[in-house]
Amino acid sequence: MAASIFRRPGALLVLASSAFGGAAYRYNAGPSSSSSSLNPHTFTPYTLVDKETVSRTSAIFTLRNRDGAADTEAVKDAWKHGVWSVQIKQPQLQIGRDYTPLPPRTDSEADSEEKMHDLRLLIRQEEGGEVSTYLHRLPEQSTIELRGPKLEWELPEDTQEVIFIAGGTGIAPAMQIAHTLGAKPGRRMHILWANRRREECLGGVGDGGELQETHDGLSSWKRFLGFAPPPAPAAKVDSQGQGVIVRELEALKKQGARHSSALAIQYYVDEENKFIKPQDVARNVRSKDMAQPGSRMILVSGPEGFIEHWAGKKVWIGGRETQGQLGGVLSTMDLKGWSIHKL
Ligand SMILES: Cc1cc2nc3c(=O)[nH]c(=O)nc-3n(C[C@H](O)[C@H](O)[C@H](O)COP(=O)(O)OP(=O)(O)OC[C@H]3O[C@@H](n4cnc5c(N)ncnc54)[C@H](O)[C@@H]3O)c2cc1C
């Protein structure tokens, strides 16, 4: 369980919960001057240019460097190396939280130089969460200060195949890896993405050919009996009924295919009683091209409980979050030839 310290008026509290099972930091004030480009040392002002609703609790925040500064080499580098994050500051409480940028848009909407450098974050509003609630309440054109990049995990250069088990916003690092791996020829990636509600992945039809119900996952009889939850306010779907994240996953598949890389995605939705099963992982572990040289890894990312269920707890040692022992479902499986990493 991630421990973090944050300040409320008159009190220092130790908090023990954070999505991704990860750290939430009270920021170190550091030098007060701000640099115009994103950098790990000082907070850089960005403008919230767009907030696109994904579901009742999550949205994509598009942030543009207020001074129009281009990406630094460090950011360009981070995109090539693996999973990276930025830290956003909550100015009143003096706390910071980490968020994982989504890959740059591949579609025609990234039609200007300015948009190419935008940072996009998929942020879930945690109930009672300090920073995520603060961010979700901000109107467009607000200033948000962030620093980074921070490399969270480096993808080995020789990675041949990745199985990524993602829960909720844990899809963001999966998309980063898909972006990086998809630029290398002949690589393979399988994403198993679990969500509590269908509204997070509207229109997602798995590549495994699994049975999907209607585009929003509810059969007409369930809707008739009144089991349908209210639709996400203003969640945009395209003409094929796909929500924004599903659409971007489809775009990543096409991007990978251009480099002869293969990306397959399976969707799992709790409210449809569809959960990731060990067999779903095992099927991909017994991949046909195990003969190919290179590293193979299983990555797990999502809320703390999700990571623990699949791979055991991450452990804090000396103020740093470490992998801890392999536990959970994956520890009971034959995964010879695969290394496992908790994000
Ligand atoms: C590397 C990394 C990358 C991440 N990327 C993303 C991302 O892309 N998208 C994303 O949405 N998140 C991401 N996260 C999670 C994110 O950093 C935050 O942890 C998350 O937004 C919640 O922060 P918060 O300040 O809103 O919630 P917090 O205030 O930290 O609260 C978290 C939870 O604890 C509960 N809580 C609050 N106070 C108490 C208390 N006193 N006692 C008990 N429980 C309490 C809250 O109700 C809430 O449910 C990432 C985390 C890491 C480490």
Automatic annotation (TrEMBL):
<dbReference type="InterPro" id="IPR008333">
    <property type="entry name" value="Cbr1-like_FAD-bd_dom"/>
</dbReference>
<feature type="binding site">
    <location>
        <position position="122"/>
    </location>
    <ligand>
        <name>FAD</name>
    </ligand>
</feature>
<protein>
    <recommendedName>
        <fullName>FAD-binding FR-type domain-containing protein</fullName>
    </recommendedName>
</protein>
<feature type="domain" description="FAD-binding FR-type">
    <location>
        <begin position="41"/>
        <end position="156"/>
    </location>
</feature>
<feature type="binding site">
    <location>
        <position position="99"/>
    </location>
    <ligand>
        <name>FAD</name>
    </ligand>
</feature>
<dbReference type="Pfam" id="PF00175">
    <property type="entry name" value="NAD_binding_1"/>
</dbReference>
<dbReference type="GO" id="GO:0016491">
    <property type="term" value="F:oxidoreductase activity"/>
</dbReference>
<feature type="binding site">
    <location>
        <position position="132"/>
    </location>
    <ligand>
        <name>FAD</name>
    </ligand>
</feature>
<keyword id="KW-0560">Oxidoreductase</keyword>
<feature type="signal peptide">
    <location>
        <begin position="1"/>
        <end position="24"/>
    </location>
</feature>
<dbReference type="InterPro" id="IPR039261">
    <property type="entry name" value="FNR_nucleotide-bd"/>
</dbReference>
<dbReference type="InterPro" id="IPR001834">
    <property type="entry name" value="CBR-like"/>
</dbReference>
<feature type="binding site">
    <location>
        <position position="131"/>
    </location>
    <ligand>
        <name>FAD</name>
    </ligand>
</feature>
<keyword id="KW-0274">FAD</keyword>
<dbReference type="InterPro" id="IPR001433">
    <property type="entry name" value="OxRdtase_FAD/NAD-bd"/>
</dbReference>
<comment type="similarity">
    <text>Belongs to the flavoprotein pyridine nucleotide cytochrome reductase family.</text>
</comment>
<dbReference type="InterPro" id="IPR017938">
    <property type="entry name" value="Riboflavin_synthase-like_b-brl"/>
</dbReference>
<keyword id="KW-0285">Flavoprotein</keyword>
<dbReference type="Pfam" id="PF00970">
    <property type="entry name" value="FAD_binding_6"/>
</dbReference>
<keyword id="KW-0732">Signal</keyword>
<dbReference type="GO" id="GO:0005739">
    <property type="term" value="C:mitochondrion"/>
</dbReference>
<keyword id="KW-0472">Membrane</keyword>
<dbReference type="GO" id="GO:0016020">
    <property type="term" value="C:membrane"/>
</dbReference>
<dbReference type="InterPro" id="IPR017927">
    <property type="entry name" value="FAD-bd_FR_type"/>
</dbReference>
<feature type="binding site">
    <location>
        <position position="97"/>
    </location>
    <ligand>
        <name>FAD</name>
    </ligand>
</feature>
